[in-house]
Amino acid sequence: MLLIECPYCGERPEPEFVYGGQAHVARPREPAGVDAEQWTHYLYLRDNARGVHAERWRHAHGCGRFFNALRDTTSDHFLATYKVGEKPPAAAKGSR
Amino acid sequence: MSVADQGLRTAKGGRIDRARPLAFSFDRVPYDGLAGDTLASALLANGVHLLGRSFKYHRPRGVLAAGAEEPNALVGVRRDAMRYTPNMRATQLELYQGLVAESQNRWPSLAFDVGAINDLIAPFIPAGFYYKTFMWPRRAWQTLYEPRIRAAAGLGVAPRTADPDRYAARYAHCDVLIVGAGPAGLAAATAAAATGARVILCDEQSELGGTLLSQDPHTDPLIEGRASAEWLARTVAALAANPRVTLLPRTTAFGYFPHNLVCLNERLTDHLAVPPALWPRERQWQVRAREVVLAAGAIERPLVFPGNDRPGILLAGAARTFLNRYGVRPGTRAVIVTATDDAYPVALELQSAGVFVAAIADVRAGDSAVASRAREARIPVFTGATVLGTSGRRRVRSIHLAQLKEGEPTGTQLQPCDCVLMSGGYTPSVHLFSQSRGKLQWDDALQAFVPSTPAERARSAGGCRGVFALAAVLADGAAAGSAAAREAIDPARRGVRPADIRTAPAAAPAVATGAAAASAAALPRVPGARGRAFVDWQNDVTTRDLALATREGFRSIEHVKRYTTTGMATDQGKTSNLNALGIVSSTLGKAIPQVGLTTFRMPYTPVSFGSFAGAARGDLFDPIRTTPMHGWARAQGAVFEDVGQWKRARYFPRGAEDLHAAVARECRAVRASCGIFDASTLGKVEVAGPDAVTFMNRLYVNAWDSLAVGRARYGVLLRDDGFVYDDGVVARLAADRFHVTTTTGGAGRVLAMMEDYLQTEWSELAVWLTSTTEQWAVIAVQGPNARQPLTGLVDIDIAAAALPHMGVAEGRICGVPMRLFRVSFSGELGFEVNVPADFGAAVWEAVWNAGERSGITPYGTETMHVLRAEKGYIIVGQDTDGTVTPDDVGLSWAIGRNKTDFVGKRSLQRPAMQSADRRQLIGLLTADPQRVLEEGSQVLAQADAAPPVRPLGHVTSSYHSAALGRSIAMALVAGGRALMGQTLYVPLEGAARAPVQVVSPVFYDPKGARLNA
Q1: Per-residue pLDDT tens over the stretch B681-693
Q2: Least enclosed by CB within 10 Å: which of B200, B334, B417, B912?
């Protein structure tokens, strides 16, 4: 059970959160003008990182807010959590 | 049979209490033991060595080890008619007065077991035999072979009654968690506690002390100038007196989870003759530790030689434990086979205790200091030894030894004996470390894997990292405890980041006696050897099975493990994994680190299911959600169904009505006069703010700007992939306020989707979302007389002109605030009365009483489903399945024509989403009007095509319609709308096919006249 640092509430246990998929996947501002390949990419294609992964979490049983996190998928350690709209902090290169 | 008769109990020494005898029974034979005994030590004291029958071959087996690693002595313990636990290790069962234990996997008795026939046909049932045999006839596998094979092999019998015991749970935080209270763990705890850190120290045994509990007071080294027993007592007392230290004996740390969450299972009553009535049986701890010290010790390796599995053949360290801790001699005449120096002190201790040590067979060549000392004590030592076999069916009787000169056996001798002790070296217990994803590395000197880089804030100390000499162990433990405590309370500490993980300091090269460790492997098998050499005792895996696996082409240790099942029994290979690895590596000619180790998984030892369930059983398994009107429905005799976590009334039977009769009556009552229905479970979201309309427009398909205040509209919500996600009536209460409803099951996920878009895509919008699902009770009144019960209770005009269909009004009912929607899911004149939930029950009763004049009838979800189906209204999740577009189910009309974008719009433009042969919602009328199709049935184009037949679609909803006096169904069928009037076919049981006619899904009042009454 992971310990996740909500930027608003501090460190809370995993069952209070809902995973929100890959972070920084912006919905095209004008979907009508987007071609099929770009739209498919937006809907279905995601990174499959071995190592640092930028992802979203929602503190569903807490403050209810979304936030972003950098997590190492090989060790489940969180490198950082940061608010919606912020840029990912310079992540430690080369996780184990 | 009293203890004194057998002469196997020593006169003094040990941690048992000779003044407190305990009576117990094993296989219905009564015996005596002593307080402090385990079942195993008490049976050994009574000269009972036959404790079980092996898994596959049903070979007689006895105790091999003294602790959790015991593979053979598995017994079932019966407390009473309701409490039977199989597969308990006799070496860990604390003896209590009246203990009733029985052996397993034998019939009719342990001494005479019919299953032993498997041992005679052993050549035909090697590893994996069931992959190659018992193939014909095919049907016989399921009915005959598999059940018989399963019954013939096995361990214990599962209990048949529900577990009546209670199990508790606790969540704890600490600075330092120390796993294992042997010398390393105790030293770590003392050092950590000295800094003021909060410490939890746990150990699976009933007493703290680990290896210190098995010391011989005459020969073992002093600690800080004291005998080890005294040092132990003082250390434990000091820790117990410290309020910042929690001591947990009888507590196994069984799983290591990310971010230093370690799960412990504390056994509270299994050792008590009469457990206090209100005590839980076990308590599961979830401990979040800032730092963890693993002091789990090491497990002795057996030796692999022919005939190494007879009762009376044990590990040397186990024999020492039985002697020194429990005061039990393992036999009267012992032979020791060893590959290390560790067995020599055991030999001398046994001799002092009156056991005749006939010989020490050392598999290493050459002389040594320990061998000389043994010879001085008149114990013959044969170096370069190997074993040709053993004899003795229910107890070992002799061992056939030989010495090797240039690989050839010479000087063979048959040594009579009644116990054989093996010592193959010690394997550090890296189970928890490995579970935490720490890296292991192979230590050639130790011939074992040891922890290297941890993946969590943890460190290992003592035997579990290859430090064995007592002084070094104590120093190692103290260093680990101090370091852990320092890091835990360091104010600069910031959670777990990869940079925080420290590399473990290198273990001192401290093999116990300076001699090289035994390599994991089988003893060389020489001409003249007889019998199978066992590698995994519990799953009956021999060297022949491992050789078979490699011969058949299995190279990865993971494959070899699964093919032979070595290491897969309840002991998880504690005494077999490394030997198996050594044998496979030498067979393949690859170094052990190249072959690799299989994955360690939790639990370390079996944990009761009840411990994981805790209090979440029966009614507490899942939260039960009820509406404010639940009590009323129950009192009316409603039959309930589960919708998610909600209890919803399904129907209200009167007299002896069954479901069908009740539903038919309820349907007729609604359409003839009026019915009352509890719609409180539907999701509700209050969407409010200056940008509420903009938000709704971007999210739902509808054009919300054209919805006037005081009006409601049926809203459809898609995902961005264009498929229907949810639906519901949306009411506009004000320019900046919407009361959005969702399906019962969709409430949570619709709000989550709204929050997702609002917070992460459209954060510039000024709009706020509030879940109001549980805040409003919803009383639906439907039927041509629906106005009657409400008219006298509401303070507003609800005549047709004042409140037309899809109108919304606020006011009061019975003096209570109300939002009134004139909406219908039944196709009749209808109202949904929303009142604050606390008033729901009272308002419901008021409406119910007022409606008596109109014969107002309560109806449940089943009737609700039928009424809407008669009108062709879909239910998301029943008529849709996540792959259905609005057009597929005839909802294109709901889409706002001039909207530039909404969630899902871009996807609807894909050619595939507009194809004419997509599955479309249609109605089906069976040729036989009384035949009700089964939901999920396939729909076919032809009556009698031969397989393979491509279905056109499937039936999504199907009921008997009281209004039409016949069955109706809705289905999604490819290109369905173009097939109006045609006949299709639905397969029934067997080869029958029911003809059905394709019709509009609106079966009743297609013009909707009744809605506008």
Answers
A1: 999 999 999 999 9
A2: B912
